[in-house]
Amino acid sequence: MKKELVTMTLAAAMTAAALAGCGSSSSSSSSADSAATTAATQAATAAATEAAAASTEAPAATGDQVTLNVIAAQYGQNTASWWADFQKEFNEANPGINLNVEVVSWNDIYTVVNTRIANGQAPDILNIDVFADFVADDLLVPASEYTSDEVYNKLYPSFLEQSDIDGTIWAIPDLASARALYYNKDILDAAGVDVPTTWDELEDACAKIKAYDSSIYPWGIDMTTDEGQAAFAYYTWNNGGGFVDDDNKWALNSDKNVEAVQFEMDLYNKGYTNSDPANETRYDLQDMFGAGQLAMVIGPNSIPTYISDGGYSVNYGVAAIPNNSTGESVSAGVMDRFMVFDSDDIDSKLDSIKTFFDYFYDDDRYTAWVEMEGFLPATTTGGETLAAKDPDMANWIDILSNCKFYPTAKSEWADVKQGVIDVEQQALLGGDVQELLDNLQSEITAVEE
After folding, report:
1. How many angstroms separate the CA atoms of 199 and 20, rounded?
2. DSSP H/E element including 229
3. Can you give the CATH number for the domain in which 167 is found?
4. Is 361 a domain residue?
5. Is 140 part of a structural domain of the chain?
């Protein structure tokens, strides 16, 4: 297999850069808008440069060594050090391969990756969530060409299906998470409120918590480029809406979605949320929650690990996400992936890439990785091991099996993901939710057609 790498434009990178500025104050001046865009673009470019400089230093390649460049997403406080150890151990165990792993934060990874691709410098292996747009641009290698039977057969089939486009699996899962409501038991008890199960109960609880102690944020929302699409999912799915309709067509401006996003904005405008949802990431919210500054937040099953690693001590509980439609809470399942980019020399690298994945998905090593990050495993062996060690993990795995997932196999997903984040951020600045979603629907369906 030897195809010319298709060069993508910088449009996606510039979109991410523009979105980064959406949380700041609006201005009617066109020169101010231009300055903000320039600043955001410079920040995105700086992030890409910084990420490249932060790459874990690998031994210089020699003679017959095959060099593999990997970009990996940063999940938590220990991600970078884990990959540094992995790289060192892998290179020592495989002297014919020169592995170089670069860890990039979720806030920067889309800009970094799109900039590299546009410059003809795509990594050999990428760890990220999106993939369909890369498939549409003919950039990826089918998973069957770089995954051994041993690895492939222990990956959950339901996870592999999330990366299926027209019968071809284009990426393999690295880990997953499910989302739930975390609440501070002490704060809710002191404020005299029960754990909310409906939107009406949620608003009532927020009002009572705010009356109890105005220094505490009752509710946490992340509308940043890191997790804004998750916020959109939490509210739309739990209002009977969502990204697509029953025919898997984009339905971004449905009445249910408009109502759901408006509910988000109402919580913010009433002072029930953290003060800067466009810029305060899930990690900021998790820090606030651990410090007792935030009463309730929707988050992944990895929050207990994050709180423990951060040295926090908080008396918390876990419950279903409040719902406004059928009464049945919908949890969001999130799965990230590894994918391999095509290149002129990919044929000479496939065996080394297969060795990389064999090493990564070794049962003991992989289970330790997932356990360290506090996420859910993508392998049956990892699931069995962790469920045997921790009954709570077994419960989360059951929850994951009933989650809704993002429609990541649709080629427009990357644009939709950034688009709903932009809608939320513009709505925070006073934009009309109906108009914003109507515009996004028109843009996406024009691309789809």
Report:
1. 29
2. helix 228-237
3. 3.40.190.10
4. yes
5. yes
User: Do the Cβ atoms of 365 and 359 come closer than 8 Å?
Assistant: yes
CB atoms within 10 A of CB 138: 11
Q: What DSSP designation does 198 have?
A: B
Residue type, 314: V
Element (H, E) at 121: none
Token pair listed for 404: 């809704």
Facing residues of 99 across strands? 68
| Residue span of the structural domain in which 370 resides | 11-19+44-176+335-405
Most confident of 47-51, 201-205, 326-330: 201-205
154-205 pLDDT, tens digit per residue, is: 999 989 999 999 999 999 999 998 899 999 999 999 999 999 999 999 999 9
Element of type H or E holding 123: none
Average pLDDT over every residue of 93-118:
96
**214 Cβ contact list (under 8 Å, min separation 6):** none
Say if 106 falls within a structural domain: yes
pLDDT at 57 over 90: no
Q: pTM to 2 decimals?
A: 0.72
Residue 144 within any structural domain of the chain: yes
Domain count, the chain: 1
